């Protein structure tokens, strides 16, 4: 008996979708790095054509029919094939459950909202953006009721889309611990000895920054045979495929820390992409990674390694070698303490790794208030400002440096912010698990980080999106998400830097 | 009454073909400028997918049906629509007239031939390549008989594919005049005073070369809002659309002339693309320009402007300004004479603009011998060497610097070489026509080349591929191809440089 479809049919559709996405990724990368400015309208036309092709493939009735067929005949598929069908069904339903007219209207509103957000920022006035935000929220609540398959709270539905299996109950507990622990640590640091970080503004030429940063990134395993570095205003990593994961950065010759940590960060994303198992080529498992786990790998590079005393005490001489006499008068201790200064900021993207999670917790609590407690949109700025005053001890003087700072809500991206904080927590939990298996002090002393690279490849990267972050974390560390590793690490590090007794 | 197809249907197919070509152009550009080396197999897969899409569109029965319909109902199309149908029919038949099995076999043989050519080059031995070349020629002769619609000679069929309307009879006359005129001029130059070009090997930093060359290119009208410059081993221009025509170059800090003239050359190609009329967007007329007319525009920049005494006598101070004291001791006359040294070479791509056409004439005569006189492939190297000895006064010492230097024949590209020489001749004929309408001495003195830019845009670039080179030439200069303009210009220039009485 011959079935209506074979696994090859499924893989052929997935391959075509992958090829189009690879193509779109390159066009996107090019738009931000190389494209002449007048080419924008032509590029928009081409992207729209390709998006149409891709959309037609993924939402077509033939594809739906194929998924339905295999759901009824799973035995005709390999284990991977079955897993792909489950994964694709979830994606398919996300769009298919929304009436087309509503989807189109919603797209239009998010587009208008992004314009309104820009105008509101110029005027530093949230009320310009508020009516659009209210409409987005109304649609989103309607969609939640369509998507919901028995979640405890409405916001759980959104969380699950970005972080499969994560719940409000779990996040309340996790973020609660983080908030309490951080509050305690910050109270202690206030009595500590704050370092001076003036030396970080010394002139370091762009070329030296680039050479040094790329040497570090490559030592951590980022391959330039499968990547490259370009300049952009907003740094990012874009992967076409596992052999083409490109990073970008920006430069300030009087703030070299920005490029060093920025390059380590993007190279961390690149490492993940470059090391996904080839068995997932041309499947969604090569590209549908949750943002939290992806961010855990960029942050592992940037924060776990890039802020580690053990790492820097061995690599500081390399920085000195790349920068002539610039830091000849600065001993390691002075350098490292400058490197680690922490200070609350109003802007999330300028936050240091210690205060960063607080920015996310504020957004998480507000999103919960929106979807679970139906708070009024007009009341959001006051809530925002009050939480900044309470958690970070500083209060926005206007909406631009307050509630208007992120574009996410204008695009309807609710439930996404927590991933940024999860990345920090996962990275620390991975590091703890790794430290139980590897002789990290010896590895840092050797300056050969191959065992760290190998551990990460084996426990994290190879899986791509074939496992959820929660599954990867459990396999690698033996337990579910536990914020104590992050808190313990930060407490240890900053207590020393701030010379607490 | 409603027709089977409307002009919109035709334009929609043409637009999709154009979008795919634009996309493939960007992938090609990226492969040569930015792509990490390990990405090659993934890129090949993507290109093959897109080529398949494009091929299916252009050779599909629906498209053929559409062309046939409009050939029967031309009145249902605008004038542009009718012209597009004629253009597309010619392209369609080129492939459609060849039996599929033969086409596939031919593709295979050209692929093998290119490998054999590479091996033959390594061994400097034409006989390794000869059997593949013989097979290609056999196929090509068969195809000619299928394509032929009453040409005078078989080789006319090939010429017409690259240069519509051009014939062996015309080229024999044109190239005959060039050969005779050049022979006479070279005999005179042998008695002239050869300049010393040692100063051209003085060190000029890459950045200074780039800044200077790009300033010149932009003065001639190349727009960086619609283009950019990158480094490659083999310089080229690649256009995605009229607002995205990118150029590349290579650098030698002890031979700055290479990059200056190379950038002017590629910017000339870019100028053509950037200035095609928007009415041809998303039609084949934005991209099917004959190589001869395209090359006439790169050569106009490189040779007509880039070797002009009037141009350099005004721009040499700019070069001096960009290069510190490097040429402070060199007066203009010494500089310009060094710039213009001419010397026969064995390699076509290293030839100066005076001897270049001879390389092409040799190839033209050999191709004619192959297709019109059925010469034996085994006899080609001897014929090649004899012609180099006769026309250029130097003889290849092996096949690598002789008949194996060009890849064209390995790809089956016969009839293509003449375009390179036609570019030189057209450029000079355009320049002569322009000089009758513009006050060129005043323009060069002003260093504002806008009138030249405007003339070229109006008489050449705007048409894209909507007119043949012969039509454009006739409209712009009032006569058909006439080599006397090129000969007169070269004679005037080199007689002065070589201080003939």
Describe the overall structure.
2 copies of one chain form a homodimer. With 501 residues, chain A is an all-alpha fold. The first copy, chain A, is built from 20 helices and 3 strands. Chain A has a 3-stranded mixed β-sheet, sandwiched between helices. In chain A, helix 5 (100-123) packs antiparallel against helix 6 (126-147), helix 6 (126-147) crosses helix 7 (154-162) and helix 12 crosses helix 13. The interface between A and B is medium-sized, with 32 and 32 residues.
Strand-helix topology:
Two copies of one chain form a homodimer.
Chain A: H1 7-33, H2 40-59, H3 61-72, H4 79-96, H5 100-123, H6 126-147, H7 154-162, H8 168-189, H9 206-219, E1 229-231, E2 237-241, E3 244-249, H10 256-274, H11 291-305, H12 309-322, H13 332-339, H14 356-372, H15 380-392, H16 418-437, H17 440-446, H18 450-459, H19 469-477, H20 484-497
Parallel strand pairs in A: 1-3
Antiparallel strand pairs in A: 2-3
Please summarize what this structure is:
Chain A is 63% helix and 3% strand. Chain A has 501 residues and is mainly alpha-helical.
Record field, number of beta strands of chain A: 3
Greatest interface and its residue counts? A-B, 32 and 32 residues
Order of helices and strands of chain A: HHHHHHHHHEEEHHHHHHHHHHH
Overall spatial form of chain A: globular
Family (chains A, B): Belongs to the peptidase M32 family.
Catalytic activity (chains A, B): Release of a C-terminal amino acid with broad specificity, except for -Pro
Function (chains A, B): Broad specificity carboxypetidase that releases amino acids sequentially from the C-terminus, including neutral, aromatic, polar and basic residues.
Active site (chains A, B): 266 (proton donor/acceptor)
């Amino acid at each position: 008996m011959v079935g209506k479809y074979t696994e090859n049919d499924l893989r052929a559709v997935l391959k075509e979708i992958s090829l189009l996405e690879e193509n779109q990724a390159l066009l996107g990368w090019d738009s931000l790095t190389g494209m002449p400015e007048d080419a924008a309208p032509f590029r928009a036309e081409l992207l729209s054509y390709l998006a149409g092709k891709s959309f037609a493939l993924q939402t077509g009735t033939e594809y739906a029919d194929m998924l339905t067929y295999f759901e009824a005949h799973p035995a005709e598929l390999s284990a991977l094939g079955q897993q792909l069908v489950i994964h694709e069904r979830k994606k398919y339903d996300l769009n298919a459950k929304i009436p087309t007219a509503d989807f189109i209207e919603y797209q239009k509103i998010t587009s208008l909202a992004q314009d309104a957000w820009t105008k509101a920022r110029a005027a530093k006035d949230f009320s310009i953006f508020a009516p659009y935000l209210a409409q987005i929220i109304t649609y989103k609540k309607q969609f939640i009721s369509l998507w919901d398959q028995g979640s405890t709270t409405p916001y759980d539905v959104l969380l699950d889309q970005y972080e499969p299996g994560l719940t409000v109950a779990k996040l309340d507990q996790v973020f609660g611990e983080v908030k309490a622990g951080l509050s305690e640590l910050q109270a202690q640091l206030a009595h500590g000895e704050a370092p001076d970080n003036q030396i970080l503004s010394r002139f370091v030429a762009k070329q030296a920054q680039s050479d040094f940063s790329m040497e570090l990134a490559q030592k951590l395993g980022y391959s330039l045979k499968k990547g490259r570095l370009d300049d952009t205003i907003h740094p990012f990593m874009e992967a076409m495929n596992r052999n083409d994961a490109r990073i970008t950065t920006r430069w300030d010759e009087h703030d070299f820390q920005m490029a060093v940590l920025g390059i380590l960060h993007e190279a961390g994303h690149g490492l993940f992409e470059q090391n996904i198992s080839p068995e997932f080529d041309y499947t969604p498992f090569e590209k549908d990674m949750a943002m939290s786990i992806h961010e855990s790998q960029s942050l592992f590079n940037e924060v776990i390694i890039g802020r580690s005393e053990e790492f820097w005490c061995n690599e500081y001489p390399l920085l000195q070698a790349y920068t002539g006499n610039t830091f000849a008068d600065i001993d390691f201790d002075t350098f490292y303490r400058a490197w680690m200064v922490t200070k609350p900021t109003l802007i999330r993207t300028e936050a240091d790794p210690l205060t960063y999670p607080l920015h996310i917790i504020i957004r998480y609590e507000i999103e919960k208030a929106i979807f679970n407690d139906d708070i009024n949109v007009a009341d959001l700025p006051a809530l925002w400002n009050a939480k900044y005053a309470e958690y970070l001890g500083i209060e926005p003087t206007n909406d631009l440096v307050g509630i208007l700072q992120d574009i996410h809500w204008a695009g309807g991206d609710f439930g996404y912010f927590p991933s940024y904080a999860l990345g920090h927590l996962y990275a620390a939990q991975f590091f703890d698990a790794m430290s139980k298996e590897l002789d990290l002090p010896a590895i840092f002393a050797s300056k050969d980080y191959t065992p760290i690279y190998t551990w990460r490849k084996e426990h994290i990267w190879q899986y791509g999106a074939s496992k959820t972050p929660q599954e990867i974390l459990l396999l690698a560390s033996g337990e579910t998400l536990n914020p104590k590793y992050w808190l313990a690490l930060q407490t240890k590090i900053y207590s020393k830097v701030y010379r607490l007794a």
